[in-house]
Amino acid sequence: MATATRRTTADPDGRLTLTVREVAELIGISLSGTYAALNSGEIPGRLRIGGRVLVSRAALQHWLDQVG
């Protein structure tokens, strides 16, 4: 019997955010596609801190739980 694999953003280091590259790798889409989805609001949790774009782990995990 096959079991479903649950995607998770759990971090053993306790960081509250992910880089855009980490999000792209986690969900399996291109870096440019990830930026586009973050900028459009399709992927929630975008934070702009100075010149960096980061993603809230909690918001991303909630979204992943919702979209399956």
UniProtKB/TrEMBL annotation:
Return the InterPro entries for the record.
HTH_17, SinI_DNA-bd
Q: Which domain of life is it from?
A: Bacteria
Annotated protein name in UniProt: Helix-turn-helix domain-containing protein
| GO MF terms, alphabetically ordered | DNA binding
Q: Which residue range or ranges hold the Helix-turn-helix domain?
A: 18-66
Query: Which Pfam family is one of this chain's hits?
Result: HTH_17
Recorded source organism is Luteipulveratus halotolerans
